[in-house]
Structures are given as structure tokens and as C-alpha cells.
Specification:
Layout (H helix, E strand, L loop, with lengths): L9 E5 L12 H13 L4 E4 L11 H15 L5 E4 L5 H14 L3 E4 L8 H15 L4 E5 L1 H4 L5 H10 L3 E6 L5 H8 L9 E4 L6 H7 L3 E4 L4 H12 L3 H18 L5 H11 L17 H21 L1
Parallel strand pairs: 1-2, 1-8, 2-3, 3-4, 4-5, 5-6, 6-7, 7-8
Helix pairs in contact: 1-2, 2-3, 3-4, 4-6, 8-9, 9-10, 10-12
Length: about 300
């Protein structure tokens, strides 16, 4: 088992969950997907995230996905499992099972009922009690959860809950939050900051002090290269590559459509056998497919120019 630590950096890809056309889990595509992410340079994987259609899976299916991915990874890189749940009992059960299978840590998003800083801190303190010594990622994604977590509340969680080792930063764009968290004296210890939102702010987030990305995109090699070049102080090269992918990344960020775009492209790339989403959820219309294909052609041309 490779456990998640405060030193996590690079690209932790949010894995999609492949389905067959009739909505069944596609285990063979899971294997191909894991191989693809490894070849693309992922330093970690995150399963059962919000873009992994986790709420559409049964408890048994969730464990089946976790077991299959971990078996394919074979300990080469750490895996984080999304365990957000309405209650702590479900969270603790999935956490224990995932860690027993070899996961490196878990990710926890706050429920939308939290309205005050004190409620946020108490929630994570209680969650940590239920999951024991398991390292966890605090997911800060107000666009999805409706919970706005200020720097002061994050600092309290980091101070009071030592098993919080990473922040998944998905405020929109929230760049000042990263700067504040990295300022001397804000946190009593340094934790990893990995960013989401499909990577559409990744160069700026890296400049502000992020350690990498924890998100999905149909071209994870973009995130790999941007993180690499930013880490080498090669900002111009990072932005040239980022800008080549940006039109597609922007298109993929459409609410309610983004996962269909991601799966469509991954299927075109041969990573998964089908672009199917489990219902409720629909694929792309022919008009949307034409738009994506045009973006892909222009992206390929631009990347050739940058070689």
C-alpha cells in the first residue's frame, strides 16, 4: 500500500467509471483505463469522485470498482477513494474496505447542510474519528456542494485533524485562497494542495503554490506537462501547451455535459469501449460531437506546431 501524505504532488487523475451500453460496469475498460493513465504519467488516481458517477453505483459496485483499479495498479501509484456519504457509517464502511484492499487514502466532501465555519470544522473532526488513522483529502468544491470553506476554517481543520493531508482545491477560481494558504503562518503544517475544475486554471494555480492537479480531463497528458514545466520554472512552455488544449478543456467544463464530453473523447481514443453514462445521464448529440471533433482537429494541429 502506498499511503497518501502531505507530500502528494503531480497529477492525481479523477478516473471515470466505464459502463457498457446497457449500463453494466465494464471491467475490461477499467483495466485499459488504468493502463492509459499510467502511461500518461499520472502520479496517483482518484476513484469514485463526483465525475466518476459514484452516486449511481451500488455499494457492492463501488467496492468492485475500487478492487479492480487497485489490482491493476498493483501498488505502482497511490489511489484515493471518494467516500463522501450522507452518514458517517457508510463513509467508515467504504473507507475500511478500500484501505483493506490497498487504497492510499480517501476524499471527503462536505454535505450541503454545513453553514458555518464551526460546523465545517466539527464535521471533519467527526469524520476523522470514524475513519481512524486513514489519511484524507478535504474536497473544497463550493460550486457542487454549496459549502464555502474559508481559509480560516481550512486552517483549523489542518491544525485539529492531523489525518487531513491534502486539500482538493476547487473554488472558482479561488486563486487568492491558495496564496493565503501558502502564506507563512497560515497553516501550522504544510499539506498538499491539488487542484480541480478540469485543470482550466492549472498554470495560475501552480504559480500560486499548488502541488499539482487532482481532476479529470480527456487529455491527462496536458496536466502532466503543465505541472512538469511549471515545476521547472518553464512557465512559457507550460502556457503554450495549456493554451493548445484550452478550447477543449473549456468545452468539457459545461455543467451537465462535461462528463459526456470526457467519455466521448476517451472512447474515441480507445481508452474505454463505450462513452455511455449510467442513467440518469445522456451522451452527446450529433451537433455536440461535431463541435468536439472540430476542437480535437484544431488541437492536434496546434500541438504539431508546438513540437
Amino acid at each position: 500500500m502506498t499511503r497518501l501524505t502531505e507530500k502528494a504532488r503531480g497529477v492525481y487523475v479523477i478516473a471515470v467509471t466505464p459502463f457498457t451500453e446497457d449500463g453494466a460496469l465494464d471491467l475490461q475498460s477499467i483495466d485499459k483505463m488504468v493502463d492509459f493513465y499510467l502511461e500518461a504519467g499520472a502520479t496517483g488516481l482518484t476513484a469514485l469522485g463526483m465525475m466518476g458517477e459514484a452516486p449511481k453505483l451500488t455499494g457492492a459496485e463501488s467496492l468492485q470498482v475500487v478492487k479492480r483499479i487497485l489490482a491493476r495498479l498493483d501498488g505502482r501509484i497511490p489511489m484515493v477513494v471518494g467516500v463522501s456519504a450522507p452518514g458517517f457509517a457508510q463513509m467508515a464502511e467504504l473507507t475500511r474496505a478500500s484501505m483493506d484492499l490497498g487504497a492510499g487514502g480517501v476524499m471527503i466532501a462536505p454535505p450541503g447542510s454545513l453553514k458555518t465555519d464551526e460546523q465545517v470544522v466539527n464535521y471533519y473532526r467527526q469524520a476523522a474519528e470514524f475513519i481512524g488513522d486513514t489519511p484524507f483529502v478535504l474536497q473544497d468544491f463550493p460550486l457542487a456542494t454549496g459549502v464555502h470553506i474559508p481559509v480560516s476554517a481550512i486552517a483549523r481543520v489542518v491544525e485539529e485533524v492531523p489525518t487531513c493531508v491534502c486539500l482538493k482545491h476547487e473554488d472558482w477560481p479561488g486563486l487568492e485562497k491558495i496564496t493565503a494558504l501558502r502564506a507563512a503562518g497560515t497553516l501550522n503544517r504544510r499539506i498538499s494542495i491539488l487542484c480541480g475544475n478540469g485543470g482550466v486554471f492549472l498554470p495560475e494555480e501552480m504559480d500560486r503554490g499548488a502541488d499539482g492537479a487532482m481532476t479529470g480531463f480527456c487529455y491527462p497528458e496536458m496536466m502532466r506537462d503543465v505541472v512538469h514545466h511549471c515545476s521547472k520554472d518553464e512557465g512559457d512552455r507550460a502556457r503554450d501547451l495549456f493554451n493548445a488544449y484550452l478550447p477543449l478543456a473549456r468545452y468539457e467544463q459545461q455543467p451537465g455535459l462535461g462528463l459526456a464530453v470526457r467519455k466521448y473523447v476517451l472512447a474515441k481514443r480507445g481508452v474505454i469501449a463505450s462513452a455511455a453514462l449510467r442513467r440518469p445521464g445522456a451522451g452527446l448529440t450529433q451537433a455536440a460531437q461535431r463541435e468536439v471533433n472540430m476542437l480535437l482537429a484544431r488541437q492536434e494541429q496546434r500541438l504539431k506546431e508546438l513540437d
